[in-house]
Give the backbone structure.
Amino acid sequence: MTSQRKSQHLDIVLEGRAAGDGRTGLESVRFAHVALPELHLDRIDLSTVFLGRKIALPFLVSSMTGGPARAAAINARLAQACQAARVPLAVGSQRVALEAGDAGGLDRGLRAAAPDIPILANLGAAQLNLGYGAEQALRAVEAIEADALIIHLNPLQEALQPEGDRDWRGLTARIGALVRALPVPVIIKEVGAGLSAAVIRTLSDEGVAIFDVAGSGGTSWAAVEGARAAHPRDAAIAAAFADWGIPTATALRQARDMCPKATIIASGGLTTGLDAARAIRLGADLAGFAATLLPAALHSAEAVEETFAVLEGQLRVACFCTGSPDLTALRKAALL
């Protein structure tokens, strides 16, 4: 059932029925143009360090899929492209792989295809109330030799799914226990409704130091579940929440203000390298892309690499036209 649901999710996104309102807040960020940058475009340094590994670009392939049969091909293409571009890869939920043995490409072949980049494992927070704990989390990490584990928070999606997990009591303490038990960092990620400052503060107190704000404006999981609804009543309930959430730019600013020293990933509706530049200027360490890459991932690794090249080119021009020789300078670039 879980595998079938994830396949439906993928189809709905690809058919364009999951788009949010597009208002991430990043569209209002405008750089002051520098007409005399005094830089060589090709020598701008876009590299950074994430989870102890040097990466060529401040991008992250955000979690997309972990269940359907076609996930194996998608994951293989993403891993190949990420290795070539030196970009971190976050996999989709590994619940199906752990429970049904259907790895969907989420096995050690992933690390073999991408030996030099950070790879992030992924489980849902709600599973921690369904018998999951350190043992299952460690299995997810070891299955793909991951550098960290994402715990994703998706209460809105679970509330709107007919088969959703409704009991979210006690999860803060369980997440904290997991942080202390695992040998790799735990990353907290929303899935498109944004992390609030209050939630970040709570989980920071539990030892979490990496957050993916995953704000609203991109894929709407309320719209996804509304499209899946078998009963008009369920579709009507979901429809009211199609634009629910904290816009990505707002969530990003609040996260950085709340945790100045944390690693912050900005995802949720980012579609261009200019969006990445805007997010970095607002305090992000990395910019996450998912739906933007999915069509290419369905085609070939080379198509994904070409998408990376476009995103890199856009980010590079943004640095050039703000007089920023590297990402540190971009974080201080003048805004209108």
Residues 301-320 form the longest helix (20 residues). The beta strands are 48-50, 53-55, 59-61, 89-90, 119-124, 148-153, 186-190, 210-212, 263-266, 286-289.
